[in-house]
């Protein structure tokens, strides 16, 4: 890019930011060539905050006062934070989740599948690198807590293998 910016560059970047916002995108990258030795490479992104998935079971145990109060309390606490469940597999990095090896292919695992230690459960894409996440232990996949193509943060629970 030349030392003097083109007047249209600011408008171009603003238009990209608006496109990002209007279409609820997280990132855009565009390279614009003006001449042989004059171009601009723009990356516009915004930070997204990934909320943990909602609990699978509704908070129904609270309205039943006749039931013993000791039994429902641990179940509610477990549903509040899946990362604390025994068998929780957490993300080792920030990235995008893929449940299958390629688009249209069958998922690596489904709820109820039996897995072996070291078997690939899913992929976390980070910086254009596909990182296979292996089962830390043998067991059964009890819950899958993420959706295919969704962003994930470091330490976020991905699935439960018991």
Automatic annotation (TrEMBL):
Keywords: Biotin, Fatty acid biosynthesis, Fatty acid metabolism, Lipid biosynthesis, Lipid metabolism. Pfam families: Biotin_lipoyl. GO terms for cellular component: acetyl-CoA carboxylase complex. PROSITE patterns: BIOTIN, BIOTINYL_LIPOYL. Residues 86-162 form the Lipoyl-binding domain. InterPro entries: AcCoA_biotinCC, Biotin_BS, Biotin_Carboxyl_Carrier/Decarb, Biotin_lipoyl, Single_hybrid_motif. GO terms for biological process: fatty acid biosynthetic process. Residues 51-88 are annotated as: Disordered. Residues 67-77 have a biased composition (Low complexity). Pathway: Lipid metabolism; fatty acid biosynthesis. Residues 51-66 have a biased composition (Pro residues). One of its GO terms (molecular function) is acetyl-CoA carboxylase activity. It comes from the Bacteria. This protein is a component of the acetyl coenzyme A carboxylase complex; first, biotin carboxylase catalyzes the carboxylation of the carrier protein and then the transcarboxylase transfers the carboxyl group to form malonyl-CoA. This is Biotin carboxyl carrier protein of acetyl-CoA carboxylase. It comes from Profundibacterium mesophilum KAUST100406-0324. The gene is accB.
